[in-house]
Every structure is written in structure tokens, then in C-alpha cells.
């Protein structure tokens, strides 16, 4: 039978002390009171930790080792998922910026063409001889400009639709790589 009493004396100063008293009963029978003197030894904290660590059973050590390995595996998996997710986010942002830049370029091109058409209208209107001819030239200008603008807007809308669909598919694929259990 082993009785272990731990007494600790903590001070507010720089050092603290801890003592452990281990009492072993050397009796062969529990009813014998003559030999109940026992062995008493006082150990310092380091020796007590050595004795305590030597008494840890192998199954407990194995459990701790398996738990640490499992935690390491989970940590590695989380790190890989985070790295993949950050790459996916970077790719998605670059994709969106590229799409926005192309749409802005197309709109700038359309505005340039509209300005050129307006200047062409002014030059054409300066050479007309009658009001009827001026209305006809202006009506043709409005018709052509409207058709050109509508085609450009539809083209931009189709382009954005394709890029969003492509981006969503890429994001779905990257997320399934980053989080395979959720897929």
C-alpha cells in the first residue's frame, strides 16, 4: 500500500518549493499493528516527477502518442486546406479583376466608337441642304448607334455570364479540393 502526500509551499518571491512524502507500508497483513512503522522519505519535486513519470503505464503512453499523431495529422490537413483555400480565393479575385478590366475596356471602346459616330454625324449634318435630309441622317445615326450599343451591351452581358459561370465552377472545384469531406 502506498500513500502519497504532496505538500507545496509557494512564496511570492523568486523561488518556490514543493515536497512529496511517500509512505510505504511494509506490513504483510493489514491487521498487524506492530510493524506499522513504514518507510518515510522526503523527495524534492524533481525526484517526485521522475518517480511519477516512471509509473505511467504503457497503454496511457500509447494513447497519448496516438492522440498526438492524430492531432498532427489534423493540423496538417487544416494547413493544407487553408493553403488551398487561399490559393482559390486569390484565383477568384484575379478572375473577377480580369473580368472587370475586360468589361471596362469594352465599355471604353464603345464610348470611343459612339464619340466617333457623333463627330461623324456632326460632319454629315454640316453638309446637308434640307431639314428633311437632316432628320433622315439623324434617324439613321440613332438607329445605327442603338443597334451598335445594344449589341455591345449584349456581348458584355454574355461575357460576364460566361466568366461568372466559369468562376463558380472553378470555385466549386477548388473548395471540393480544400474540403473533401464537404463535397
Care to describe what's here?
The chain has 183 residues and is of the alpha+beta class. The chain has two domains: 2-55, no CATH class; 81-178. 69% of the residues lie in helices and 12% in strands. The chain has helices spanning 45-54, 58-126, 131-178; strands at 2-9, 17-24, 39-44. It has a three-stranded antiparallel beta sheet with strand order 1-2-3. A hairpin with a 7-residue loop joins strand 1 (2-9) and strand 2 (17-24). The protein is rod-shaped, with a radius of gyration of 42 Å. The protein starts with a strand and ends in a 5-residue tail after the last helix.
Number of strands: 3
How many structural domains in the coordinates? Answer: 2
Q: What is the average of the pLDDT values?
A: 77
Largest beta-sheet details: 3 strands, antiparallel
**Radius of gyration (Å):** 42 Å
Explain the layout of strands and helices.
Elements: E1 2-9, E2 17-24, E3 39-44, H1 45-54, H2 58-126, H3 131-178
Antiparallel strand pairs: 1-2, 2-3
Helix pairs in contact: 2-3
In short:
The chain is α+β, with helices and mostly antiparallel strands.
Amino acid at each position: 500500500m502506498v500513500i502519497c502526500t504532496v505538500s507545496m509551499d509557494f512564496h511570492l518571491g523568486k523561488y518556490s518549493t514543493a515536497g512529496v512524502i511517500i509512505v510505504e507500508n511494509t506490513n504483510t497483513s493489514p491487521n498487524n499493528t506492530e510493524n506499522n512503522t513504514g518507510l518515510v522519505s522526503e523527495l524534492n519535486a524533481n525526484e517526485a516527477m521522475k518517480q511519477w513519470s516512471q509509473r505511467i503505464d504503457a497503454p496511457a503512453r500509447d494513447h497519448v502518442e496516438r492522440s498526438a499523431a492524430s492531432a498532427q495529422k489534423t493540423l496538417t490537413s487544416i494547413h493544407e486546406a487553408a493553403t488551398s483555400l487561399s490559393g482559390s480565393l486569390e484565383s477568384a479575385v484575379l478572375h473577377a479583376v480580369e473580368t472587370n478590366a475586360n468589361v471596362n475596356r469594352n465599355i471604353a471602346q464603345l464610348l470611343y466608337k459612339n464619340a466617333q459616330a457623333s463627330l461623324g454625324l456632326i460632319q454629315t449634318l454640316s453638309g446637308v441642304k434640307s431639314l428633311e435630309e437632316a432628320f433622315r441622317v439623324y434617324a439613321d445615326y440613332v438607329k445605327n448607334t442603338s443597334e451598335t450599343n445594344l449589341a455591345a451591351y449584349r456581348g458584355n452581358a454574355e461575357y460576364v455570364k460566361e466568366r461568372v459561370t466559369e468562376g463558380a465552377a472553378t470555385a466549386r472545384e477548388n473548395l471540393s479540393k480544400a474540403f473533401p469531406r464537404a463535397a
